[in-house]
């Protein structure tokens, strides 16, 4: 671990902050006007690369994609050179390979029918990476470009820009109750259950599964994994489980709610608080009607905002408690030690969120939509997606099935997910009933 | 002799890769085909297709119509507040109801 002033240009955490903020400043100043993204397609695979305006093809994104690859390769290579973790030429060659696989993963995920199933780019990026690493083996030159942690941390700093704190009030007190009371209780319950009752040795895996289950699936898993410096295989396992269960819950929860004849708004709040990913929440909510779709999506959005605080809390807990237990150190750590061990990218993550929540939004007269459409949607959000996609490619390229199987500890992670999610379902339903039906029946 | 075994190992690896690729292509073909499970199990999928709902976003900001959904919730809350106010005015015997700003 780098200590002292040199950590500012030698540590990965600080580089994630610098690169994240270069992009954010580029977005605010319009020096980066827009980032190309792979489009949706149904029957014609090339349509994903076409620019369509008013149903007319006006161009393609091949050159912009090439420029994006060069831009990201140079930007991240600067960090690699300063950190001295790899030779620049070797890194860039590997980065190009990782970027091309990320393009393929996005292209698969953007097929319209696949989107209806809720199978996101994260899954396809993992699968393609795993296919290579577990068959022909990841070649050394490709591994040099697979900088999982750096990609994740830059992605998380950019994600901070999307977390606008004032959005937590969108649904008033009942929304806040469902999203913000249940979530920490479920995280603590699952952590205690995993560590104390299931006796899982891998605490990092426990907290990743707990955060993924209680907050927002993949995004929360990434944030928690980075905050506690978990192994790639832990993240792969947690993400795999959350993606499968999200699809199952999207399929069966609305049917169950309809079958029980539950109030639509209550059902929507229940699904918003429990189904892991937002897309699946919108789809499931829509099954109950337009009002339910809106309520479910907004409950999930309020819960999503928690991701920053959660990452901060996990980082602090790991630095002050878990790492010291693992090292066998006794007594309280002093402030300097906490600072040295603290994952600094979390500061960038929170700073980006605070900048957009309390500077950019007020500067735009409190208009969230304007901030989102001007700065977040065209630049930071798209780049965050690219970094996460490349991170999942890199995770796949560096994981092997044997390691994954060894982390199953006789099915304990699955037990933890199922028990935790069941607890989440019961508690969320109770609090949603209390909030929307008893305490604030006139809220919506 | 050693060269042959290395070649065999390489061949095995590539064979495994192509089998894996075939399986992945099969998974892709299945999900992209537009198939939906019969009966209630495929209800959500058919609904997503009918209403063009993208179920893949991982985070709220990735939902294309999130701004509309948020606006919808604001409108629902205003409507509900107006209903409650109207009811309260009625109870108090006020005839000409004007919703509070």
Topology of helices and strands:
The complex is a heterodimer of chains A (444) and B (101).
Chain A: H1 7-10, H2 12-28, E1 50-53, E2 56-60, H3 62-83, H4 88-109, H5 112-117, H6 121-133, H7 140-143, H8 148-162, H9 172-197, H10 203-216, H11 218-227, H12 232-260, H13 264-274, H14 278-286, H15 290-304, H16 306-327, H17 335-341, H18 345-363, H19 368-398, H20 401-406, H21 412-439
Antiparallel strand pairs in A: 1-2
Chain B: H1 2-32, H2 43-51, H3 66-92
Low-confidence stretches of chain A: none
Amino-to-carboxy terminus distance of chain A: 51 Å
Shape field of chain A: globular
In percent, how much strand structure appears in the residues of chain B?
Answer: under 5%
Q: Indicate how many domains the architecture of chain A comprises.
A: 1
Order of helices and strands of chain B: HHH
Number of strands of chain B: 0
The percentage helix of chain A is over 70%
Q: Note the total helix count of chain A.
A: 21
Features:
heterodimer, A: 444 residues, mainly alpha, two-stranded antiparallel sheet, 21 helices, 2% strand, B: 101 residues, 3 helices, rod-shaped
3D architecture notes:
The complex is a heterodimer of chains A (444) and B (101). Chain A has one domain. The N and C termini of chain A lie far apart (51 Å). Chain A is globular, with a radius of gyration of 21 Å. In chain A, strands 1-2 form a two-stranded antiparallel ribbon. Chain A contains 21 helices and 2 strands. Chain A has 444 residues and is an all-alpha fold. Chain B has helices at residues 2-32, 43-51, 66-92. Chain B is mainly alpha-helical. The mean pLDDT of chain B is 89. Chain B has 3 helices and no strands. At the A-B interface, helix 5, helix 6, helix 12, helix 14 and helix 15 of A face helix 1, helix 2 and helix 3 of B.
